[in-house]
Design a protein that fits this description.
mainly alpha; 8 helices; 2 strands; 5% strand; elongated
Length: 203
């Protein structure tokens, strides 16, 4: 491999972490946004099917993206009480993001880390009533998340630039509906185990 080939390999978009691509993806839609606005948007979209980076992560990635020439920023003028820095994607950033988004080998499998199921797995150490309560709490939280997803879908409805984000939100709506169904089934499974005498050690 020649030195030029090594350089090209190092310059591949995949060298950036997923958080950087997520932040750059938020910038790929029309308009300029502050880090705070990007965080709010991530909380009302990305978190439903991926995750929402912390505000500190967002600003760290914005600095990285600026250094790479993938994003540019401007400070607000004296007309604003508080000075703000607004960010926008550059042509180079859009080209890099398009390349990364088109790389199917980079997507990888979905990763599930279900905290509730980890506790169910250790149910032999818990009171059956406590396990049922945890599942009920999970059901309540999931219903709240489903309502938030649907609110985001309503906000995006009819906006041409948000057609594909709407597809992701629609998938998230189905995922939350499936999670509710799974949790209801889990309650029934817990009842069967308890009736069969499989109560936890705390019982």
């Amino acid at each position: 491999m020649t030195s030029s080939q090594r350089l090209e390999k190092q310059d591949l978009p995949q060298a950036l972490p997923p958080t950087a691509w997520a932040v750059l993806g938020l910038l790929s839609f029309p308009g300029e946004r502050t880090g705070y606005e990007l965080k709010k948007w991530a909380d009302s979209s990305l978190r439903f099917f991926y995750w929402s980076p912390a505000i500190s992560q967002i600003y760290a990635e914005l600095r990285r993206l600026e250094e790479l020439g993938y994003a540019a920023s401007v400070r607000s003028g004296p007309e604003e009480v508080r000075t703000k820095r607004r960010y926008a994607i550059t042509d180079a950033g859009r080209a890099a993001l398009a390349g990364w988004a088109s790389d199917t080998a980079e997507a990888g499998p979905p990763i599930l880390k279900h905290g509730l199921l980890l506790r169910i797995w250790l149910g032999h150490l818990a009171e059956p009533a406590l396990l049922r309560a945890m599942v009920e709490d999970h059901l309540e939280r999931t219903r709240g998340e489903l309502a938030a997803v649907r609110e985001a879908m309503e906000h995006a409805a009819g906006v041409g630039e948000w057609a594909f984000p709407t597809l992701a939100l629609r998938w998230s709506e189905r995922q939350h509906l499936a999670e509710l169904e799974l949790a209801d089934a889990l309650l029934a499974d817990l009842a069967e185990v308890e009736a069969a005498g499989g109560a936890g050690a705390g019982a």
